[in-house]
Amino acid sequence: MKKTVIILGLIAAIIAITLSASRNSNFAIIPIVIAFISGLALVFLSKKDQSKTKPIQYIFLLVIMSLGLTIYKGVYKTIEVESTEQLDQQGERDTDKSKELLENRQIESKF
Q1: What value does the mean pLDDT of the chain take?
Q2: What was the pLDDT predicted at 12?
């Protein structure tokens, strides 16, 4: 039981640190939670057995690192817009079409 929780916690923590360092850092929250819960379970299991706490320390260290990276990327994420010219041109075309439609409606309503 204890070895299974250790393996689950370490795998989830490694996945969390990998995801938090990638572009998709928002998806790192789920493995962070899983690793944190397994770390807490290990704390309670190790209190009963009086066993080593090294795996618990590693899991919590990786969880803290990945959580820090995820928060950092969430706060300082810049939105990159490559070309605003296309958006401006499309906006102008839509505005011109709207004006033409309004003028046609006004002409039709006069008759």
Answers
A1: 83
A2: 94
